[in-house]
Write a structure and sequence with these properties.
- The complex is a heterodimer.
- Chain A is mostly helical.
- In chain A, 51% of the residues lie in helices and 0% in strands.
- In chain A, helix 5 (62-74) packs across helix 6 (81-94).
- The longest helix of chain A is centred in the last third of the chain and has 14 residues, at 81-94.
- The mean pLDDT of chain B is 94.
- In chain B, strands 3-2-4-5-7-6 form a 6-stranded parallel β-sheet, with helices on both faces.
- Chain B has 23 helices and 19 strands.
- Chain B is α/β, with parallel strands linked by helices.
- Chain B is globular.
- Classes of the chains: A mainly alpha, B alpha/beta.
- The interface between A and B is large, with 50 and 78 residues.
Chain lengths: 107, 639
């Protein structure tokens, strides 16, 4: 897996680059996150480690988002199944899978 | 010569008579004076009657022999070295000193990691040897780790330049070699004379093993190893200050008052709890106050994770990211270095902070510290617990019990929520989720297995580490990669009767696989599991986060992260080092491979599993782009 010079250290760094606390995250109301069920828990939990920009490049279908959220459970996020379901629904609507990229290259 | 020394020390001959006797025997005057100088402390000690005869002995021989003798006297059993021709006399000395075991390591980095693993798992001294500055440079990555992790490891390499040709920019010569390592060591020194080798060795071990621990470096010109000398060898315990500091009693009382009066105190544990064998004291202390317990990044797990007061680690490495407790009013750190990687302090400024550590230098560097407790944390916990008990009342005991119940409720909920990881819709996929590999290994591991973890982007779960007789964790803190396999080999060397499992990422693995050869040669039955996604997954995600929406993501062109095409086969690499290995693509294959690994290790053989892991995260393609650099097509001659 990702050998990172200063791997987990860098993960912590990534966490540090974002908002200071869930409360602050909630106050910040980042653009690109429409009001809908699931938004509140997303802002409170995910923004502790992730910048709002991450979602823009990570568009995928609902199953993909659900898998992402369960991987975060493996990293220590504490959510109920209902919260995961709600967030997956929300993200699948707000950040759905884009049209297939046509500019992928292989050597 | 022995007779002359005995006569001089018993004052039967004068200083002049001693020198004359030696020169008559063919020793140069300079060498004779050197020998005489080395006897002065002995003569002085005899005069005061202060040294037990068995703790000091005089050794006549080459510098290399004296080096070996002092290592034995310093309690060293294993020497981890890479071939160095100027250490010839040291190797010669090993022939009739079988108690000093030399482990040949094919690369200095993993060799030093192996030594560090041995020291950490055994609590016994060891030394790392390498050739001059060229070998030292290879070992310095692990020296950095030892420095960051406060591992008491002694490094030695000679200066290739001999005393009579030093300064001429000769082969393998660099100016001030011993100064290169100064930012990474507690102490570094160049011995100026052959008879000073043992004293330099002693001082190296003394400095490394005096808390707070850390690496040291000792060196001398290579001709000293060949030179005949006469030197004093002293048992290490005669120079070891055995420094275990008790905290200031007044500060202990202040800390106790804060904790007893707190609404919601929080305990952070760290490596000093593990290394001072104070885990049970930390448990009792937390139970006394009904206090939740957490830990930020360290090497060891220093608290039983199945304990009802354990609330997990903060996911974002700050206490504020804990789900529970929110806003603790008093936080006490016991033995954690608190690695700050953020402008924000790990503990919010609003909380009153008590810091108990043996490293006074780092106290207050970042955290506002209400109460500093400079102490060996085992003593510190004893004293603080006694002070708390002294001021607890029936009301505060009741409050502690109620708080413990609140923590227990959260702890049970946390365990249930963490178990949801298996509900991932991709749980059964192949190649596997990293979480699935972790989960399978956690199901497989012995109840007292030692997990050496250098899969940095993989967050472990399901192991329920318990340093009180259960599973133990050896993570890394320094982050010079390539330490995992070597560390696991060293841990198994120290703890042959416990299962040792090494979890390592593919990138980390290829930085330092050579210790596999040591596992095969020494029959160190370690199970190594490589999380192989053929990528640097962590840097991939973090670079994208810094350049969100940028050209790299738009074009799916990442130069820095993909390790496939061709894919590296870690099982084949292992086989090349003499370790049986296989590739596992699916969860079923992984379970079967783990069963074969268990059989191999029971038979005394190491085993490696190359576990194929899915690349997940932003903007990965099934066939990632690679930079179009193909030199064969640019040739004008097909040679």
């Amino acid at each position: 897996m990702p050998p990172i010079r200063g791997k987990t250290v860098a993960a912590f760094l990534a966490c540090s680059l974002v908002l200071a606390s869930p409360a602050l995250a909630q106050r910040a109301q980042p653009a690109g996150f429409p009001d809908a069920p699931g938004k509140e828990v997303l802002l409170a939990k995910c923004f502790q480690c992730h910048a709002p920009t991450m979602w823009q490049d990570h568009r995928q279908d609902r199953r993909g988002w659900e898998s992402v959220l369960y991987r975060m459970v493996g990293r220590g996020a504490l959510w109920t199944e209902d919260e995961i379901k709600t967030m997956a629904d929300y993200l699948a609507t707000a950040y759905p899978r884009p049209a297939p990229a046509s500019n992928q290259e292989t050597p | 010569m022995r007779e002359l020394v005995a006569r001089y020390l018993s004052r039967n001959i004068s200083r002049r008579g001693f020198l004359k006797g030696l020169t008559t025997a063919g020793v140069s005057l300079a060498a004779a004076e050197s020998i005489l100088d080395s006897l002065i402390p002995i003569a002085h000690a005899q005069g005061t009657g202060g040294v037990a005869p068995e703790s000091v002995k005089m050794v006549e021989g080459t510098g290399g022999e004296c080096f070996a003798e002092q290592l034995i006297a310093s309690g060293v059993k294993y020497v981890f070295g890479n071939s160095a021709s100027e250490d010839a006399q040291f190797y010669e000395a090993l022939v009739d000193r079988p108690q000093l075991k030399y482990i040949l390591t094919p690369h200095e980095g993993p060799g030093a990691a192996m030594a560090a693993g041995y020291v950490k798992a055994s609590g016994e001294p060891a030394i790392v040897m390498q050739a001059a500055v060229v070998g030292l440079a290879n070992a310095m990555g692990q020296m950095f780790n030892a420095y960051k992790e406060q591992t008491p490891l002694v490094f030695y390499s000679y200066r290739t330049d001999q005393t009579r040709r030093a300064g001429r920019d000769g082969f393998e010569e660099v100016a001030n070699q011993e100064q290169i390592v100064q930012p990474l060591t507690k102490y570094s020194w160049l011995a100026r004379r052959a008879d000073m080798i043992p004293e330099t060795v002693r001082r190296g071990f003394k400095a490394a093993w005096t808390p707070p621990y850390g690496p040291t470096y000792i060196s001398w010109h290579s001709d000293f190893n060949d030179e005949k000398t006469y030197a004093e060898i002293v048992a290490q315990d005669k120079v070891d200050p055995r420094m275990r500091v008790r905290p200031n009693p007044a500060e202990v009382e202040r800390a106790a008052k804060l904790l007893v009066e707190a609404k919601m105190p929080l305990l952070i544990v760290g490596d000093e709890v593990y290394s001072t064998k104070a885990v049970s004291k930390a448990v009792e202390f937390a139970e006394l106050l009904g206090m939740p317990v957490t830990q930020v990044r360290q090497i060891y797990a220093s608290f039983p994770e199945s304990h009802p007061l354990w609330v997990g680690g903060p996911p974002a490495a700050r206490i504020s990211s804990l789900d529970f407790p929110k806003n603790p009013d008093v936080v006490i750190n016991v033995g954690n270095k608190l690695q700050h990687n953020s402008p924000q302090p790990i503990v919010a400024r609003e909380a009153k902070f008590i810091d108990m550590r043996n490293d006074s230098w780092s106290m207050g560097n970042v955290m506002n510290t209400e109460v500093p407790l400079v102490a060996d944390v085992a003593y510190g916990l004893d004293d603080l617990k006694a002070a708390v008990e002294g001021i607890m009342t029936s009301a505060t005991y009741k409050k502690a019990r109620e708080r413990a119940q609140e923590v227990r409720s959260f702890s049970e909920k946390m365990k249930n929520l963490r178990a949801l990881v298996t509900k991932n819709p991709d749980w059964n996929r192949a190649p596997m989720l990293a979480d699935r590999v972790t989960w399978e290994v956690a199901q497989f591991a012995d109840k007292d297995a030692i997990i050496v973890h250098e899969a940095g982007s993989v967050v472990l779960h399901g192991f329920d580490f318990n340093p009180e007789g259960g599973r133990e964790l050896f993570f890394y803190y320094g982050a010079h990669l390539g330490s995992g396999v070597g560390t696991a080999a060293g841990v198994k060397l120290a703890r042959p009767n416990q299962q040792v499992i090494c979890l390592v990422g593919d990138g980390s693995f290829v930085f330092g696989p050579t210790a596999l050869w040591n596992m095969a040669r020494l029959e160190l039955p370690v199970i190594t599991v490589v999380y192989n996604n053929h990528a640097y997954g962590g840097p991939h995600s973090r670079v994208i986060e810094k350049t969100a929406g940028g050209k790299m993501v738009q074009k799916r062109q990442f130069v820095h992260d993909y390790l496939g095409s061709p894919d590296m086969n870690m099982a084949q690499i292992a086989k090349g080092f003499g370790v049986e290995a296989e590739v596992a693509e699916s969860p079923e294959q992984l379970r079967a491979a783990l069963a074969r690994a268990r059989k191999a290790t029971v038979d005394g053989k190491p085993y490696l599993i190359d576990a194929q892991v899915a690349r997940v995260g932003v903007a990965w393609s099934d066939k990632p782009w690679i930079p179009p650099i193909i030199i064969a097509r640019e040739r004008t001659r097909k040679v």
